[in-house]
């Protein structure tokens, strides 16, 4: 009997060790993928902007040790009380109540801990608020259910960025539900200001590796900023429940060198022959058909947003890759 119990215990310990090893090898020791989620990872997505570095530092160096210490302290107290003061160990309980010094301590210590956290928390908040002089401005507009991007300084009129359909994502070897038809391009080591608004309902513009999440509210222009220190492709998504296809309006940002960015701008900006860029109708006839999208989208949906579950009224799919765009809004509905 004893030996079988020992055997069971050994097996249980073995299984536990195995599970722990699997967990840690899959989670903590898996190299986190830059710019997108990593399967099995438990850590924060690594960052590539000063704000994100600060936020991760705040979490790992300030918050996590404090939380761990408090959890261990409470666990220790619970254990101590359960063992030392149970009915058998302490048959005659003490009758006193209240201990003024102890009550002062357990009120003051949490206050001091919160003040200590607040010092770093406010510093980080101010860093988010104090945007350096921007080198580039992007306007991001959330629609049900895609993003519209505009580069006012580069005279790039609004273009539509849809989710990349699953078959195309597979064919290109990019992550489905993160990759898009028209990514954002930004130069590295430049301060990028993002002005965020919504056209129909509230969305939110979020890119974890940049450490930003900003609500896209109709009728309001919110602002955030980032400065990417490593070239690469970084994915984000809408972070405000905005209707049935909320999960299908990802964000893809390519951080490239200034030269590559300039080349992209040259390709994207309307040619000098069409200087009437602001008028969507005139641009629609040209190569950047996307410019015409926001107008019908905004006009048509302003009244149609009462019921977010209603089918999108003639969802505009004017993207050049015509095969790609129509599939995008339909794919989610089929699941
Ligand atoms: Cu949204």
What does this structure look like?
- With about 325 residues, the chain is of the alpha+beta class.
- It has two domains: about 90 residues, Helix Hairpins, CATH 1.10.287.90; about 170 residues, Immunoglobulin-like (Sandwich), CATH 2.60.40.420.
- Helices cover about 40% and strands about 20% of the residues.
- The chain contains eight helices and ten strands.
- The protein has a five-stranded mixed beta sheet, covered by helices on one side.
- A hairpin with a 2-residue loop joins β1 and β2.
- The longest helix has about 35 residues.
- The radius of gyration is 27 Å and the shape is elongated.
- The site of copper (II) ion has 8 residues, from loops.
By DSSP, the count of extended strands is 10
List the ligand species.
Answer: copper (II) ion
Mean pLDDT: 81
- Give the strand order, joined by hyphens, for the main sheet: 3-2-1-5-8
Using the 3D structure, state the CATH architecture of the largest domain: Sandwich
Count of discrete domains: 2
Q: Please compute the radius of gyration using only Cα atoms.
A: 27 Å
CATH superfamily of the largest domain: Cupredoxins -  blue copper proteins
Proportion of helical residues: 25-40%
Strand residues, percent: 15-25%
How far apart are the termini? 53 Å
Tell me the CATH topology of the largest domain: Immunoglobulin-like
Order of helices and strands: HHHEEEHEEEEEEEHHHH
């Amino acid at each position: 009997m004893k030996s079988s119990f020992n055997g069971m215990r050994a097996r249980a310990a073995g299984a536990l060790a195995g599970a722990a090893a699997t967990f840690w090898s899959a989670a903590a020791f898996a190299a986190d993928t830059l710019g997108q989620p990593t399967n099995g990872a438990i850590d924060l997505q690594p960052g590539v902007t000063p704000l994100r570095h600060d936020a991760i530092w705040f979490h790992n160096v300030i918050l996590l040790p404090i939380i761990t210490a408090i959890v261990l302290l409470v666990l220790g107290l619970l254990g101590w009380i359960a063992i030392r003061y149970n009915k058998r160990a302490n048959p005659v309980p003490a009758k006193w109540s209240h201990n003024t010094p102890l009550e002062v301590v357990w009120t003051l210590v949490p206050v001091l801990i919160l003040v200590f956290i607040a010092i770093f928390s406010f510093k980080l908040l101010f860093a988010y608020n104090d945007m350096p002089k921007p080198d580039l401005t992007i306007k991001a507009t959330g629609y049900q259910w895609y993003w519209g991007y505009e580069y006012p300084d580069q005279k790039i009129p609004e273009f539509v960025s849809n989710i990349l359909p699953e078959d195309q994502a597979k064919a290109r070897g990019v992550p489905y539900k993160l990759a898009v038809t028209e990514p954002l391009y930004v130069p590295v080591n430049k301060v990028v200001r993002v002005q965020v608004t919504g056209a129909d309902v509230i969305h939110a513009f979020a890119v974890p590796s940049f450490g930003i999440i900003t609500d896209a509210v109709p009728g309001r222009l919110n602002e955030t900023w980032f400065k990417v220190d490593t070239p690469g492709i970084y994915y984000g998504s809408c972070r405000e429940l905005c209707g049935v296809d909320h999960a299908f309006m990802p964000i893809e940002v390519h951080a490239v060198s200034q030269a590559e960015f300039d080349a992209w701008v040259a390709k994207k900006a309307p040619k000098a022959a069409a200087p009437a860029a602001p008028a969507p109708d005139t641009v629609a006839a040209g190569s950047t058909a996307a410019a015409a999208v926001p107008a019908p989208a905004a006009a048509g949906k302003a009244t149609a947003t009462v019921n977010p579950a209603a089918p999108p009224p003639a969802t505009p799919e004017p993207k050049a890759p015509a095969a790609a765009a129509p599939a995008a809004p339909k794919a989610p509905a089929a699941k």
